[in-house]
Design a protein that fits this description.
Strand order of the largest sheet of chain A: 2-10-9-8-5-3-4
Number of strands of chain A: 15
Largest interface: A-B, 54 and 55 residues
Structural class of chain A: alpha/beta
Oligomer: homodimer
Chain lengths: 386, 386
């Protein structure tokens, strides 16, 4: 009687009504219904982005939206600051390099978040940089960056702040308008509880002015075309219709809960997970952990890959392991999207049982209890403890 | 009791087992099952492409694959021939221009297919052109181009033949290996009976050598990365997992039927549709019509847009109208993908009834009878008649 549980930071579980919507006969992408669908999705996304700016979408993974946020915003020979604290910050750098943009990297030790002071120093040294490329939640390490602090630096300068919120959107707070973030990129298969294949992007007025000046080559990811057609409920190219119908279902859930409460829920799930980790005597990998995913340093005696495999084979549980140099050293448990307290209890309980089965000595049940205490005590009680 | 019928050249109807597969809980894209899924899909695509070359896939619309077939094959300052006989041939030119590639266009009157002689003349005049960009079925006009004849010209030269088979693949014959086509681009939502969001591309050895030389900027659509990871059942970025599961179901159907019989079926459906059009005293828009879609010149007294709307509102039928300058002037009936004889009878019967309801005098039933005759007589009988 196998039953699977997905605790990866994308794809995340899909609500049942979204799964059912995708099983309906497909509609023409120029139909009145699809026009209404696209308009509704783009309107509801504004609530999730916490912005009055219009949102555009692309049929691609989140990386397609990231490429667009380079190709549409910059010109040949431009110089940008790239914050690299893991695989996804590095991806910003790689895309810029592929498009002939000069990067000034800030390399942050994995597990740490960037010091805004270091960014300010570089901004002062290089007043001609066109943009700072940052990451809300660096999914590969579980680190949350202080986007609000970075925005305080860029909004008083002509420099744009361009944020990869691929995994963070809807889980970690990102107040695009209040903070003054210029560009936010995200995608469907994380906090938006939709299968992969859609990227979503919001730009403010300053960013659109940069789009006008940009001369880097772009066609499929042309933001202007996606934006202008999107406002009419249309598209330049055939969109992923079934994924849009699923996204609408998921957005209905978020809009009903309200984005502030959605973020608070993720904050509670993350706090409980962290509390459980500490109760088990283990340590967190991220110094400033995100609400999206909790990365846990595995004891050296535990073979990380064997542990991940055991969890899948014996418990039906998929956690994410570490990537590249973190492979085998950390486990990442996502509490992202269509998740609540009961899911987190399953994630923690299985984690405990798996470690014991691997021969590692931890107090079975201690993590679960710690999580329950966070849930029953609420976030106030958690704050007092930590 | 509304019932919808989709006769657009993409998205096309999805087989029920593919719809059901998409309603299953989503899987992690690094799971063993997804690795096996990707390998299976890529292997089965070779059969549809009629090639021994490995196929790669991208999470994007077909246009993303087209952009990749420019950005990965060419370098700055390269010169190419672009065959423009409608919206999609023009798209090749637009992408090349966006990437700074010089184009030598061959403009073909809408409704006609390119004269290979004209292409040969240009190839002789410009022996330095790197590629010819062509279209198998120009979906906007319903025209089939003679790709085999074009390949005879390019395969004896260093020039690559790069074919947009977005709508044509699996409906119109395209023997990549036998004919010597270098690059074929297609996507999910046409002959492959899958919702939009996946592009599929095959390259031969000559094309891969050009990829090595290419210096145009690319990141998300990097063919080399997609190809190398794909061979391992992996991906560089989170793929559209649910669409891959649907594509596997659809490919199972095509592989069971066999690509030669799949194409023969489309040929039969197209012949019946054309025969019906003639029996109604109407004329075809395409001089060399494709198996994918039949474009019909509407009588001038019939308001094309009103006709399309009537068909949808009263009959639940979606045909495609004309695009740009053909808007209101033609109707396009696709017989593409998960379609058989009964579907075509519905398409023709409703078409007749709609015209009569619009006040146009045609012999009700004549088209249906003509189609039935083609089906019952087989393609041989059809050949004798025309």
């Amino acid at each position: 009687m196998k039953k699977k549980w997905l605790f990866t930071p994308g794809p995340t579980p899909i609500p049942p009504e979204a799964l059912m919507a995708m099983a309906q006969p497909i509609d023409y992408h120029r139909s009145e219904d699809t026009v209404a669908l696209i308009k509704d999705v783009l309107e509801k996304l504004k609530h999730v982005f916490q912005t009055e700016n219009d949102v555009l979408f692309l049929t691609s993974s989140g990386t397609g939206g990231m490429e667009g946020a380079v190709a549409n915003l910059l010109s040949r020979g431009d110089k940008v600051i790239v914050i690299r604290s893991g695989k996804f910050g590095e991806r910003w750098g790689d895309i810029c390099t592929a498009f002939g943009v000069e990067i000034i990297p800030i390399d942050v030790t994995y597990g740490n978040s960037v010091d805004p002071q270091a960014v300010e120093t570089l901004l002062v040294e290089h007043p001609d940089v066109k943009a700072v490329y940052a990451t809300l939640c660096e999914t590969s390490t579980g680190v949350l960056h202080d986007i609000e602090a970075l925005a305080r630096l860029t909004r008083v300068r002509p420099t744009l702040l361009i944020v990869d919120a691929v995994s963070g959107l809807g889980a970690d707070d990102l107040q695009m308008d209040n903070w003054g973030v210029d560009v936010v990129v995200s995608c469907a298969q994380k906090g938006l509880m939709t299968p992969p294949g859609l990227s979503v992007v919001a730009l403010n007025q300053r960013a659109w002015e940069a789009v006008e000046r940009s001369d880097l080559p772009k066609y499929y990811f042309d933001f202007r075309k996606a934006y202008e057609t999107g406002l009419q409920g249309s598209v330049p190219y055939t969109p992923a219709v079934t994924l849009l119908t699923a996204l609408q279902c998921a957005l209905n859930r978020i809009c009903e809960e309200g984005i502030r409460r959605t973020i608070a829920r993720h904050s509670r799930l993350a706090a409980a997970t962290r509390s459980a980790v500490k109760a088990l005597g283990l340590s967190l990998f991220a110094v400033s952990p995100a609400n999206t995913v909790t990365s846990i340093r595995l004891p050296e005696v535990v073979d990380g890959k064997a542990f991940i495999n055991l969890m899948l084979d014996e418990y039906g549980i998929t956690y994410a392991g570490g990537q590249s140099q973190l492979s085998g050293k950390i486990v990442r448990i996502a509490h992202l999207g269509w998740m609540n307290e009961n899911d987190v209890i399953v994630a923690i309980s299985a984690f405990e049982r798996g470690l014991v089965e691997m021969g590692y000595d931890i107090p079975l049940g201690a993590g679960v209890t710690a999580a329950q205490e966070v849930f029953n005590g609420g976030s106030q009680s958690q704050k007092k403890k930590s």
